[in-house]
């Protein structure tokens, strides 16, 4: 009898020779709206080995509108997102905390701490797939939503009094939220922050190390203390912090490998952390040929696979050619991990 999807992922994270490379497709509403039949076809042929538990929050968050429809969406913190295209999340144009004087008026959405644990556990018992928690802390991004990107970057340099208070407020909530989910039967926890431009980090490694590394260290320690794996997503060129994340014992990173260079990433980090995807969604998925997709996957497999350490994740989002998304999973099936160094 072959390995279950849950065992495949666990063996991958532990570099313990899974029978095949596990897979996962991130399907954005944009793709479902434009290519519903192709989405269904790919999911039928290559079902995910990783799934996310339903939120199961008895207390509904206070939101207004739909984040994936044109218009205004107000999230649980009160941040107003303006969207112009269906299927794509909008941007915050008027930050809530335009002035630090408003910090004491900020409403913390504690609804996220109310989770129906039995429903989550029942979901986990009913599947043989690897189950991720239904929460995703994002301290750096939430700071941007609340303050605005440019003001926040200035804050990180100037260190106004309110900044440390706001970071502590966010971090306390996120730790409590992760703790709630860590006490369920899910297999993994996740957090995210997009740290890179196309060429470098958005902040200096020193600022990142002083303000954010300690937060992430606590997320890792919390997850591992409860016997959970910890995953992270971060867009952009983030080689400047990958060594730190590995040192913190992060289990898996979803990052733009192509942006940083497959060879560079493989030489410096292959075998040291699991790469949870991803295949280039900026050029390859929208404009590449089938042959280019197969060659890219072959190189990723050869440079990143070390008896594990690779998850065949692919995002089906804005601009992606459905034929290329399908080709990604066909290519990973063909690669199978056996050609890794």
Q: Give the biggest sheet.
A: 6 strands, parallel
Total number of beta strands: 11
Name the helicity range.
40-55%
Q: Which CATH class applies here? A: Alpha Beta
Estimated structural class = alpha/beta
Overall spatial form: globular
Helical stretch tally: 15
The name of the CATH architecture is Alpha-Beta Barrel
Query: What is the arithmetic mean of pLDDT?
Result: 95
Quote the CATH topology: TIM Barrel
Which strand order spans the largest sheet, edge to edge or round the barrel?
Answer: 1-11-10-9-8-7
Quickly describe the structure.
With 341 residues, the protein is of the alpha/beta class. It is 44% helix and 13% strand. The mean pLDDT is 95.
Key attributes of the depicted protein:
341 residues, alpha/beta, TIM Barrel, six-stranded parallel β-sheet, 11 strands, 44% helix
Give a written overview of the molecule:
With 341 residues, the protein is an alpha/beta fold. It has a single domain (5-55, 115-139, 171-335), classed as Alpha-Beta Barrel (TIM Barrel). It is 44% helix and 13% strand. It has 15 helices and eleven strands. The strands form three sheets. A six-stranded parallel beta sheet has the order 1-11-10-9-8-7, sandwiched between helices. It has a three-stranded antiparallel beta sheet with strand order 3-4-5, with no helix packed on it. It has a two-stranded parallel sheet with strand order 2-6. A hairpin with a 5-residue loop joins β3 and β4 (80-83). The protein is globular and about 60 Å long. The mean pLDDT is 95.
């Amino acid at each position: 009898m072959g390995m279950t999807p849950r065992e495949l992922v666990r063996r991958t994270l532990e570099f313990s020779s899974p029978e095949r490379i596990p897979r996962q497709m991130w399907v954005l509403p944009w793709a479902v709206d434009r290519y519903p039949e192709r989405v269904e076809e790919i999911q039928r042929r290559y079902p995910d080995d990783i799934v996310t538990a339903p939120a199961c929050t008895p207390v509904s968050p206070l939101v207004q509108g739909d984040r994936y429809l044109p218009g205004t969406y107000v999230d649980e913190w009160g941040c107003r997102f303006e969207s112009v295209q269906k299927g794509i999340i909008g941007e915050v144009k008027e930050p809530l905390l335009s002035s630090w004087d408003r910090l004491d008026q900020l409403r913390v959405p504690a609804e996220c701490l109310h989770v129906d644990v039995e429903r989550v556990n029942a979901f986990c018992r009913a599947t043989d797939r690897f189950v991720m928690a239904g929460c995703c802390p994002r301290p750096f991004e939430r700071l941007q939503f609340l303050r605005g990107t440019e003001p926040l970057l200035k804050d990180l340099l100037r260190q106004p009094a309110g900044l440390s208070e706001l970071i502590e407020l966010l971090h306390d909530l996120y730790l409590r939220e992760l703790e709630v989910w860590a006490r369920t039967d899910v297999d993994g926890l996740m957090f995210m922050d997009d740290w890179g431009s196309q060429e470098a980090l958005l902040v200096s490694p020193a600022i990142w190390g002083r303000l954010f590394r300690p937060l992430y260290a606590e997320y890792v320690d919390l997850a591992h203390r409860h016997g959970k794996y910890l995953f992270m997503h971060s867009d952009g060129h983030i080689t400047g912090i990958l060594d730190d994340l590995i040192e913190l014992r992060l289990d898996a990173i979803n990052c733009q490998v192509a942006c940083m260079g497959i060879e560079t990433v493989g030489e410096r980090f292959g075998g040291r952390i699991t790469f949870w995807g991803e295949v280039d969604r900026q050029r390859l998925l929208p404009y590449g040929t089938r042959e280019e997709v197969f060659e890219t996957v072959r190189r990723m497999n050869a440079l990143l696979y070390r008896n594990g350490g690779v998850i065949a994740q692919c995002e089906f989002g804005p601009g992606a050619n459905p034929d290329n998304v399908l080709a990604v999973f066909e290519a990973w099936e063909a690669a199978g991990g056996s050609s890794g160094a």
